[in-house]
């Protein structure tokens, strides 16, 4: 029988042996650091890179799984993994391929704990580098520990904010205050020792501001003395062209001594300059900061403010940018040039719709500090670049709180409902409805943009089926008329405090439904120009056209043996958008026309006008959508809409509908027009009956000369503007653009 003391000694020995083995087991797992790298990515996705043995390397995609991706994402401080991508989606890495044939259960705390061939044992190439997409949410309380001796790790924190002082807190947007990071579940200040202007530039860019400026240092020093401090244990080292603070490197580690980690300095303070659209006032200082020329870059086709296809003005003509080498640096130059912050995404492959006209730039390379995209290096040879490769951006924009002043109520999903606004009534702010008189697609577009819900798919003038909150039944806004470019509904024209709503609110309150994608119709100007001619046609052959009001008013009562002179042409209308173009009215409400034996699914689909040089209309035509269908489609795209056998009508993305020159009503009746110089104008979807991602390309204008017997049509342009040569010849023409209603 063992003595109790012996038993105690034995237990102690066994415990020590277990602890030693456990320690050896832990020490046998190599200490590694991870980061996400590569181009064309968001901060929570990228190529997986491993720091081991003093060197960064990659991971092979052989046997990689979602479980391995989960381990990677959690090790980086994200809650979970969304997906993973093989075959170097985020570009090829450099150096060693540290891990191959990685097998994880998903429960490991480090990728080094997963089974693999061993560090550096791989038969892969960098074409097999694996990438991951993590969830955007960070792990609460996650604290990043830098294990690298040379401090080349990226900044990793749960969150970052600009904490405004009490006097600045009510300003929108918040442009100035202390910079704080959330680390280990607590908000902490950053010591300003070693903080640079480049660091400030990056943080301002993250919050939607294109630039930074000075601030009252003395006031913040006095304020900092009175505040309790809790400093973060690291410094930050940014080059200034990073899109996110997480792209910056960790600087030296600050020695933690309670709250006395910044004895020679104070907490970091930044002050940012907002872009034009977000400036709180037009003070002299603001005007001085923005004494710049009109940008040579614009965004088109985006649903939200600060996103869209990148277009560049060159020789008086707008064109697109090819996505070869398109990256976050070039995208950030575009965003800052237009008064936004840094870029959130650099999009490729025409993801925000395809442009028209020339491709002006290819293989763009920017340092990130250029004032304009046109200052970046680029290849002028764009051979092989099509609009399928159009580059686009999504920019960081300031938090303006627009969504807090508006809401949708009663809808079947978050994308639809009765529009309710926060308005003043009897001296207090209350939720109320919007009068639906004059409510249309443009107004609905502004609502959807303000709420961050994309484009409008429908504007409703009756919402009795969406009752919503009965306390918000009172009408607080009426007479709303929007151009479509406003950021908020209250920026549109409206009656103000003098509410006038003849039908009242209730069942006639305004409503919307929103969608993330929209169609975009573009007329082929070259086809119009090449097919224009005159035809004299007898009235007896135009009876159906007369019934459908396709002739001028002078044709009423005309003798059946008389002739009408018609300006005829073909039109080819392409859907360049991201969703199909469908008539707003349902099939059950389409109008049957017995004479032509077809349905009209839209009251007016196209306007055809002949204008004098000062913009006065001298002759007109119109096209009801007697048949919207996929006449032809791009290679690889199947036709969806066919009018035969009373089928569904519309235009599929990548397809076009062709109205031939010999079809009834495909003309302008010019019988009463005198010889001279004119402007030939075509406007698609003129009443905005169907929502589109871009209305600026719905208009085509051509120069036109008529000598009484023949007609010449030339220099046709999409977008409502002709070339500088045309403007010199026809002064004032460019102001006669497509206008709302």
From TrEMBL:
Primary localisation category: nucleus
Catalytic reaction equation(s): L-lysyl-[protein] + O2 + H2O = (S)-2-amino-6-oxohexanoyl-[protein] + H2O2 + NH4(+)
GO BP, sorted A to Z: chromatin organization; collagen fibril organization
Enzyme Commission code(s) on record: 1.4.3.13
Protein name: Lysyl oxidase homolog
Organism: Myripristis murdjan (pinecone soldierfish)
Gene: LOC115359670
Protein family according to the UniProt entry: Belongs to the lysyl oxidase family.
Keywords annotated in UniProt: Basement membrane, Calcium, Chromatin regulator, Chromosome, Copper, Disulfide bond, Endoplasmic reticulum, Extracellular matrix, Glycoprotein, LTQ, Metal-binding, Nucleus, Oxidoreductase, Repeat, Repressor, Secreted, Signal, TPQ, Transcription, Transcription regulation
Disulfide bridge map: 60-124, 73-134, 104-114, 238-248, 366-376, 482-492
Cofactor: Cu cation
SUPFAM superfamilies: SRCR-like
Gene3D superfamilies: SRCR-like domain
């Amino acid at each position: 029988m063992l003595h109790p003391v012996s038993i105690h000694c034995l237990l102690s020995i066994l415990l020590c042996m277990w602890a030693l083995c456990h320690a050896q087991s832990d020490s046998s797992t190599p200490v590694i650091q991870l980061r996400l790298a590569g181009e064309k990515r968001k901060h929570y996705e990228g190529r997986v890179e491993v720091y081991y043995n003093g060197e960064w390397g990659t991971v092979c995609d052989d046997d990689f799984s979602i479980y391995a991706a989960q381990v990677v994402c959690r090790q980086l401080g994200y809650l979970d993994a969304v997906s993973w991508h093989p075959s170097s989606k985020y570009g090829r890495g450099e150096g060693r391929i540290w891990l191959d044939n990685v097998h994880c259960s998903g429960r490991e705390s480090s990728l080094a704990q997963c089974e693999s061939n061993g560090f550096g044992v791989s038969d892969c190439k960098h074409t097999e580098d694996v990438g991951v997409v993590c969830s955007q949410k960070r792990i609460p309380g996650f604290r990043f520990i830098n294990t690298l001796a040379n401090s080349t790790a990226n900044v990793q924190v749960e969150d970052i904010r600009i904490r405004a002082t009490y006097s600045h807190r009510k300003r929108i947007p918040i442009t100035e205050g202390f910079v704080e990071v959330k680390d280990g579940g607590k908000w902490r200040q950053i010591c300003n020792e070693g903080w640079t202007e480049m660091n400030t530039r990056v943080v301002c860019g993250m919050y939607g501001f294109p630039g930074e400026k000075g601030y009252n240092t003395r006031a913040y020093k006095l304020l900092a003395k009175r505040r309790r401090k809790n400093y973060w244990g690291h410094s930050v080292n940014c080059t200034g062209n990073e899109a996110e603070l997480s792209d910056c490197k960790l600087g030296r580690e600050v020695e933690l001594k309670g709250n006395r980690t910044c004895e020679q300095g104070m907490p970091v303070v930044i002050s940012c300059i907002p872009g034009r659209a977000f400036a709180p006032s037009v003070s002299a200082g603001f005007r001085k900061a923005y004494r710049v020329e009109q940008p040579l870059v614009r965004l088109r086709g985006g649903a939200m403010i600060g996103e869209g296809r990148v277009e560049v003005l060159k020789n008086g003509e707008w064109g697109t940018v090819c996505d070869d080498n398109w990256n976050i640096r070039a995208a950030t130059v575009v965003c800052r040039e237009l008064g936004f912050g840094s870029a959130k995404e650099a999009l490729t492959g025409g993801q925000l719709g395809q442009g028209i006209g020339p491709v002006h730039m290819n293989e763009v390379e920017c340092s990130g500090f250029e004032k304009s995209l046109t200052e970046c290096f680029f290849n002028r040879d764009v051979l092989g670049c099509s609009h399928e490769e159009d580059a686009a951006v999504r920019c960081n924009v300031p938090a303006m709180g627009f969504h807090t002043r508006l809401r949708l109520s009663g809808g079947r999903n978050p994308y639809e409902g009765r529009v309710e606004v926060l308005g003043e009534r009897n001296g207090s702010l209350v939720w109320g409805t919007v009068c639906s008189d004059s409510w249309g697609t443009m107004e609905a577009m502004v609502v959807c943009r303000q709420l961050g819900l994309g484009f409008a798919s429908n504007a409703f003038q009756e919402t009795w089926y969406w009752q919503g909150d009965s306390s918000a039944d009172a009408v607080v806004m009426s007479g709303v008329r929007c151009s479509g470019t406003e950021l908020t509904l209250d920026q549109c024209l409206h009656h103000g405090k003098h509410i006038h709503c003849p039908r009242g609110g209730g069942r006639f309150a305004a409503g919307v439904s929103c969608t993330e994608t929209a169609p975009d119709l573009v007329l082929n100007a070259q086809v119009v120009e090449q097919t224009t001619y005159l035809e004299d046609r007898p009235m007896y052959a135009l009876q159906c056209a007369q019934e459908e009001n396709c002739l001028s008013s002078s044709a009423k009562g005309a003798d059946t043996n008389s002739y009408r002179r018609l300006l005829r042409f073909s039109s080819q209308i392409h859907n360049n958008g991201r969703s199909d173009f469908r008539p707003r009215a349902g099939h059950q409400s389409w109008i049957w026309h017995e004479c032509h034996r077809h349905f009209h699914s839209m009251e007016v689909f196209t306007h055809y006008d002949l204008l004098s040089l000062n913009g006065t209309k001298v002759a007109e035509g119109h096209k009801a959508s007697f048949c919207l269908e996929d006449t032809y489609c791009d290679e690889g795209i199947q036709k969806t809409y066919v009018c035969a056998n009373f089928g569904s009508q519309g235009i599929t993305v990548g397809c076009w509908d062709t109205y031939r020159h010999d079809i009834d009503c495909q003309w302008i009746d010019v019988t009463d027009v005198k010889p001279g110089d004119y402007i030939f104008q075509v406007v698609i979807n003129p009443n905005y009956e169907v929502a589109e991602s871009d209305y600026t390309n719905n208009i085509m204008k051509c120069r036109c000369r008529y000598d009484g017997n023949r007609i010449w049509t030339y220099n046709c342009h999409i977008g409502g503007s002709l070339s500088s040569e045309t403007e010199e010849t026809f002064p004032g023409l460019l102001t006669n653009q497509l206008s709302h209603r």
